[in-house]
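U., I forgot to send this yesterday:
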Amino acid sequence: MGKRQITIKESAAESIAAIAFFIESHGLIATAEKFTDAIYDYLIQIADSRKRYAICREPGRALIGYKCISYKKKYTIVLLESDTEVLICEFQLSKNIHW
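Result:
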């Protein structure tokens, strides 16, 4: 199994941290930690070079060439991929993407 390099932009990492902070602010510290671990484990799985992902359905992101992946039907991971690298650009709630 070939692996590509994963690069996570600061905005995506901040979004993940903000969601984890929100969960933690409700007193669910262990749940917030499990959430971040699960997301970063999933992002490592994206590095498999045998998989290719679909272009986003939103016209603005599709025009730029972004590809979108649904994570647990609630979040959307927006990325750019090449043969050697996967660049994670955004991580956000799916309901915040309007088209």
